């Protein structure tokens, strides 16, 4: 049995590492794992050490499709598997990283395991895949080669500089598969409010609410400002929850002081105001906010920075408290899919067998990883999807070989 794997990212490498028989991996880049090397800001959030049930709760698109795969190769299995080769550590939110904080160590481990079973063809782009009798004919760099099975693992459209330019969609489409999207996922959010004067600022440990119609979701963590809007871990997770609806119909509400309720916050302001009654507001607010944000904040309160504290009315203080607890931002758009951490969208899951990752339209054609219309929030969930679907496909092909 001869299997072709198209793409040497986490899905392609893991499939190769678990396949029996003759295996050839086609990779358009000069090396394996180019995108994997930059994940988690170069640290590689390998998985999330949680139960399959908790994992599926973080899958945004088509979680039911992932039920069999995630139970077939779970986060616990991932931790056990990689712990045999590299030291791991678990951080806040059950996020698992290599102890070295070096994503290249994960890539090297996967590549070393894969090349024991597979032949790699680097700088080789697959341009055509055709069904021939009971197998396939693959054309790459002008050369044709025959295979019994093909696993498409060439990602989505995010970070095209790493080779993810939608080739997998074209291959799937040539076999009659429908492609969903793609949509932006895990991307910064552009807002209507003029946040340019805030600049590049990170706020840690803030509360965030996402309001979509009557639905309200709550988050806690880190939010970043940029020249056009909002970013950071909490915000990019929110982007994946609103990428299929009109962003204008949503609101992002930030609690800048989540540790203080309104009553305590009001008492603190009144106490500080008595002690610093002759200060200008721009100075007074430095005890509550980073200096980069004070101008924007006071503007949103319709208060001038040079206003003297003793001239504030009770209504002014109520307004400040309200804005500190509920600073509202109106999304106008999401950044383009190409800069997303993952791609939302891909091969329609209705056309893939969730038990085997085999195409329902073409026997012997399999899909794994980001090319499938499945995506999750940040925290190691998306790499786990790649590993679980790849393992599922490899296991199915191995079982065919054994029969």
Describe this structure in words.
The structure is a single chain. The protein has 403 residues and is of the alpha+beta class. The chain folds into two domains: 244 residues, FAD/NAD(P)-binding domain (3-Layer(bba) Sandwich), CATH 3.50.50.60; 148 residues, Helicase, Ruva Protein, domain 3, CATH 1.10.8. It has twelve helices and 22 strands. Strands 18-17-14-15-16-13-19 form a seven-stranded antiparallel sheet.
In short:
With 403 residues, this protein is α+β, with helices and mostly antiparallel strands. Helix content is 30%, strand content 26%.
What characteristic shape results from the CA principal axes?
elongated
The separation of the N and C termini measures 11 Å
Biggest beta-sheet profile: 7 strands, antiparallel
Number of helices in the DSSP assignment:
12
The CATH architecture designation of the largest domain is: 3-Layer(bba) Sandwich
What proportion of the residues form beta strands (DSSP E)? 25-35%
Please identify the structural class as seen in this structure: alpha+beta
CATH topological fold name of the largest domain: FAD/NAD(P)-binding domain
Our count of domains comes out at 2
Low confidence ranges: none
Strands in their spatial order, largest beta sheet: 18-17-14-15-16-13-19
Number of strands: 22
CATH homologous superfamily of the largest domain - what is it?
Answer: FAD/NAD(P)-binding domain
């Amino acid at each position: 049995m001869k299997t072709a794997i198209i793409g040497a990212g986490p899905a392609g490498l893991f499939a190769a590492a678990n396949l029996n028989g003759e295996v050839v991996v086609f990779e358009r880049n000069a090396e394996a794992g180019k995108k994997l090397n930059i994940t988690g800001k170069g640290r590689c959030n390998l998985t999330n050490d949680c139960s399959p049930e908790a994992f599926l709760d973080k899958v945004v698109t088509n979680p039911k499709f992932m039920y069999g795969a995630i139970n077939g190769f779970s986060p616990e299995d991932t931790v056990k598997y990689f712990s045999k080769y590299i030291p791991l550590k678990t951080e806040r939110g059950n996020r698992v990283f290599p102890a070295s904080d070096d994503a290249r160590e994960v890539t090297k481990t996967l590549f070393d395991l894969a090349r024991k079973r597979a032949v790699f063809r680097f700088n080789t782009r697959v341009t055509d895949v055709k069904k021939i009798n009971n197998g396939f004919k693959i054309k790459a760099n002008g050369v044709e080669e025959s295979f019994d099975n093909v696993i498409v693992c060439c990602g989505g459209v995010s970070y095209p500089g790493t080779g993810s330019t939608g080739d997998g969609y074209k291959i799937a489409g040539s076999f009659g598969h429908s492609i969903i999207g793609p949509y932006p996922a895990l991307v910064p959010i552009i807002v209507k409010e003029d946040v340019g004067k805030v600049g590049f600022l990170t706020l840690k440990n803030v509360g965030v609410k996402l309001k979509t119609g009557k639905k309200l979701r709550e988050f806690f963590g880190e939010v970043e400002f940029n020249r056009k809007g909002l970013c950071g871990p909490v915000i990019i997770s929110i982007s994946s929850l609103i990428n299929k609806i009109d962003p204008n119909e949503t609101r992002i509400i930030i609690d800048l002081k989540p540790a203080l309720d309104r009553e305590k916050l009001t008492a603190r302001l009144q106490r500080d105001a008595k002690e610093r009654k002759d200060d200008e507001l721009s100075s007074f607010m430095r005890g509550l906010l980073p200096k980069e944000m004070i101008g924007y904040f006071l503007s949103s309160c319709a208060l001038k920075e040079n206003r003297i504290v003793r001239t504030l009315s009770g209504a002014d203080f109520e307004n400040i408290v309200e804005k500190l607890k509920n600073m509202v931002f109106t999304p106008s758009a999401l950044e383009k899919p190409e800069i997303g951490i993952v791609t939302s969208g891909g091969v329609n899951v209705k056309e893939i067998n969730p038990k085997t990752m085999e195409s329902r339209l073409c026997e012997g054609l399999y899909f794994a990883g980001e090319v499938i219309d499945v995506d999750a929030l940040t925290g190691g969930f998306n790499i786990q999807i790649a590993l679980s679907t790849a393992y599922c496909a490899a296991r199915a092909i191995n079982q065919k070989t054994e029969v």
